Amino acid sequence: MESTKGLAATILLAAIGVLGGALLFEHVGGLAPCVLCLWERWPWWIAAAITIPVLLLAPVRRALGPALPALFALIFAGSFALAAYHVAVEQHWIAGPATCSAPLSGARSFADFQNMVVNRPVVRCDEVPWALFGVSLAGFNALFSALIAILALRTMRRFRPEAAR
Q1: Could you give the maximum distance between any two Cα atoms of the chain, in Å?
Q2: Which helix (H) or strand (E) holds 135?
Q3: Residue 123 carries which DSSP code?
């Protein structure tokens, strides 16, 4: 991956896959996300938002130059750290945040809000609701984030200004 445009396209496709998968697990599969799950989505949303102008506007690519792969490397290093933290919480190696429950949304009145608070189930960050080959969704996020961070670092190392055009 020599160009920032290729890196941005790869990250956009990965973000669509990761976020689409998370939303499918949540809305189709019925897996309510915990607070850490929701936090883990933010780096993917941010990276996807950055890729749009990079892919559509050559002046943006040129202006960002070698800083773009470095920015993506930082975003996904942070994403990896957050996902690894979640895995450590799931494995009970460390304690999770005290606010480990899904946020409230959709209340149209104070009575609706009260009803949601009383009747909603708590989604715990230290439980694994789904795993494949012993790897949780947080574990897969850590893996994908690490791969994207490495890809961004390799692109940054090989960056040539003419490749940004």
Answers
A1: 60
A2: strand 135-136
A3: -
Distance CA 142, CA 125 (A): 15
Q: Which residues contact 57 (CB under 8 A, 6 or more apart)?
A: none
Domain containing 131: what range?
4-164
The distance of Cα 18 from the centroid of its chain, to the nearest Å, equals 7
Q: How far is CA 103 from the centre of its chain?
A: 18
Average the pLDDT over each of 2-16, 71-85, 99-113 and give the range with the smallest value. 99-113
Question: Residue 7 has which token pair?
Answer: 């890196």
Handedness of CA 57, 58, 61, 63 (dihedral sign): negative
- 55, 8 contact by CB (below 8 A): yes
Q: What is the pLDDT of residue 163?
A: 47
Alpha carbon distance 69, 156 (integer Å):
5
Q: Residue 136: phi, psi to the nearest 5?
A: -80, 175
Which two structure tokens, joined as six digits, stand for 157?
């190392």
Q: Tell me, what CATH number does 153's domain have?
A: 1.20.1550.10
pLDDT tens digits, one per residue of 102-115: 455 566 777 766 66
pLDDT of 20 strictly over 80: yes
Q: How many domains does the chain have?
A: 1
